Fold these 2 entries.
Entry 1:
Amino acid sequence: MDIRTLCLGILTMGDATGYEIKKTFEDRLDLIFHASYGSIYPALNKLTEEGLVSCREFSQEKRPDKKIYSITANGRYQFFDAIMKKPAADRFRSEFLATLMFSHLLPASAISEFIDDRIKDRLQKIASMADECGSKQTVREQFLCNFGLTMYQAEIDYLQDNRHLLEADALMGTRAAE
Amino acid sequence: MDIRTLCLGILTMGDATGYEIKKTFEDRLDLIFHASYGSIYPALNKLTEEGLVSCREFSQEKRPDKKIYSITANGRYQFFDAIMKKPAADRFRSEFLATLMFSHLLPASAISEFIDDRIKDRLQKIASMADECGSKQTVREQFLCNFGLTMYQAEIDYLQDNRHLLEADALMGTRAAE
DNA sequence: CGAATATATATCAAATCGATATAAATACAA
DNA sequence: TTGTATTTATATCGATTTGATATATATTCG
């Protein structure tokens, strides 16, 4: 599943412009799947060429044309085909964890700061999600929202319970032994 | 932090060939940061040009030259500089979760199958990690390994406790209301 | 003895990111 | 009211990264 496919998916929920699709990625998919303009606009062009979406242009005075995309019957069929396939493995990249991998090279203060920041970030995300979660329209969006909340909370718990291991390691002479 | 930087990091642990660096990514960083040959070899060339690593070539008979890379003093300095910066946000992409986002378009059987597969996958990863975790050399590698275990377990727990919500939604006529 | 796996290099098209450019409408505070 | 920031809306571009593929030999194991 690539960004092209996910654009199709978003269009199954209703017509949209490229801009609105980007916003949907940010508002409802950012935890799950990230996409930038540089991939969305080319994706929409290609989907249009392939007849999986259609595009109505509204020429506006003194503004660039507004292009509203709709999914076609063929597009729906292709999207269904795509989501029926076994999902490929997650792609995950964490600079935070990669940094901790080399925490023996860092001053203890930096380690503590990074962990503090991480916990703060997760708490903030939980705070802003908690409201939304309840007011989600569909069962599946609630399911995904609560999934996010649960994972963030698990991360906070782990960091709070175990950070002392890394911090102690940084302060003691353990490093010299390596 | 990019793959170039992380290659530097791996070389702080000892000299290595491109092949060995790839293996290190697989063995010790796959949870955290993925890298393929297509990014590692160009990274090493660029690092060599920049003088952050040095390269000794061992011409072997009947085999391509073996190139052993070492980090230079300047390289160590640059790497330290990189990990002292605030780590950027995680990059995460999950086809599994993206698929669930559109579970209302799937037959109930497919939803159950995907969740079953996911749980199996997580259990398998936990099984293969559990051994390793105890035998990790350093405190920080144990910390990261247990972090992974904890997150995988949290995911399993959530899926087991809440899958019925999605599955019931798929079976009932709830979909018609959307 | 033969098959599979490990060692080791490298490249390439395609996908994607992140930044930037452009331009006007709208909201909002000084 | 006037200036500033944000939102709406398009699009491109270099740099990064993926995933697949090519090439060759050594080693392991049934």
Note: Chain A has a mean pLDDT of 91.
Entry 2:
Amino acid sequence: MNIVHFLCTEIDFMGTTERKAREKEELRALILKAARKLFVEKGIGQTTIRNIADSIDYSIGTVYVYFRDKNEILHALHTQSFVDLRGQLKVLINVKDPMERLKAMGKVYISFGLDNPEMYDLMFTLKAPMEFLETIQKDEWDEGKASFDLLKTTVQQCMDNGHFKGHKLEPLCFLIWSCIHGMCSLEIGSRTKNVNIKNPENIVTDAYDEFLIIISNL
Amino acid sequence: MNIVHFLCTEIDFMGTTERKAREKEELRALILKAARKLFVEKGIGQTTIRNIADSIDYSIGTVYVYFRDKNEILHALHTQSFVDLRGQLKVLINVKDPMERLKAMGKVYISFGLDNPEMYDLMFTLKAPMEFLETIQKDEWDEGKASFDLLKTTVQQCMDNGHFKGHKLEPLCFLIWSCIHGMCSLEIGSRTKNVNIKNPENIVTDAYDEFLIIISNL
DNA sequence: TTGAAAAATGAACATTGTTCATTTTCTTTG
DNA sequence: CAAAGAAAATGAACAATGTTCATTTTTCAA
């Protein structure tokens, strides 16, 4: 093999390598998209690898070429969802007043949760995708922490404006997050269980109004 | 069969029937106890019917004589756990001041959740035991509602004492419950995922302190 | 065109929930 | 006490699902 051959080979090789890598990434994304669709449609627990493979006309084995196991699929969608949530929250940097921004963040968060209950469960209540985590990345939670940091920054700015006197930043943020998450969690739970405490439609809305009154006066 | 025979038979029949019923109840309770033990030890998802049967030296089939399916076991433990929670909360009627009682209820609730994370998940985050509910009782959530009523009564008494002015009872109660539940849920979630936001040990305690400050001033 | 590397495949296995025909144990009765 | 009938217990067998891996198909540089 002379130098010309080497160069040509190298160029071709790089070209196809790139394309192959792109195609792999595309199929991976296709699998994730199909999985997400089925998860939303029929629930995570009721969706099988065979379902996912069938829905994109690939074989079971192919799914396992691109994902080590079902948990890795859940894991990837978990990360995606956090990126999505953070994306929706980041838009609110346009709201200058931090207290108004905080209120808006809560509303966006709740809408996100109640509009995508299956994904919300995947993010917060499902245990599976995180067990045996020692294997790979620990950084999928970095996205969650980034969202939490968005909250912290906003609350800090509220404090700078004289709000939340006598409160500590980190615990207060955890409390606020717990409030909002708790509402989503209980509402999603009672929806899937068809057991609503009362006012099925508006209980979260009404409770969030109470929340707004309370933090406005802090 | 004459009248004496009938009476004797009837008496014997009732005697053994009672004993049989008691034995059935005992075995049912034994299965539940074994299931709960295994659930706590190795997690609900990792516990199989075979595990449960083995642990009490009965066969798989026997478990299915006493429980229609795994969901019915989860369902029974779900109800038991709510009875347990309500029992712990009911003790607090001794606390006369409703605001103090409310604070104590939160503490008891959090301890209950963090001390029995697996059972807490079963009560609030697990979907399985409640799906296809149309089959049997809808009343297992009555226990949950009873606990919620305990909260409502206490908050109402706080209102009678001049607290929570400008707030509506039901939404406020839902908000309070969401706060406490949210803390438990997030804490349990981050524990099982070995991913803690910060101050792993005390974040809930610190956040609950913030909660106390806030509601004390309402 | 060809041969090797990459990708895709699906048969096969392991686990688990579940069923049910059979076996075992218990109870009543003659 | 013996036998029949009822109740309880059993575990082999089935179905569904996650997973593996030897084989087949496709791709692509030479």
Note: The domain at 70-218 of chain B is CATH 1.10.357.10 (Tetracycline Repressor; domain 2).
